[in-house]
Structure prediction request, 158 residues.
Amino acid sequence: MALRKIREMGEDVLTKHCKEVTKMNLRTKLLINDMLDTMYEAGGVGLAAPQVGILKRIAVVDVGEGDGPIVLINPEILEQDGEQTGEEGCLSVPGKYGIVTRPNYVKVKTLTESMDEMIIEGEELLARALCHEIEHLDGKLYVELAEDGLHDVEDEKE
Ligand code: NI
Prediction:
């Protein structure tokens, strides 16, 4: 298990457009494994490569629905439908959350770790996580979409 340092809001690497993955190699496989370890260790439901300082179009998602993690490589949203408004956070913005409106359903085209094309459909939390992670690959953070600014996770608990 290898953990990578999670970059935080304010670091340039989180604002960049990431490059497509053109071939799978050992280095990229190790990156994906490290991203999964880092996401689980931090207790997140998703992590994108720029969050560990790598400008590649790779993200991992696990919303805990029992199907194990989803690895996204060069993901693209093909369709979206409906609307959901709810709390959203990000490992790169620790201790904060915001209220963000997202589609309630998305259909995503991605490559698997074997570089085969795959279609993923997600609703509710999975749809939210897919949108959030894909936006990271274009250098966007959810804070731009937060309707009422950022809130403190700690304040909410009191
Ligand atoms: Ni995030």
In short: The chain has one domain: 12-152. The beta strands are 46-48, 58-61, 70-81, 84-88, 96-102, 105-111, 117-123, 151-152. The two ends are 35 Å apart (CA to CA). The helical segments are 26-42, 124-136, 153-157.
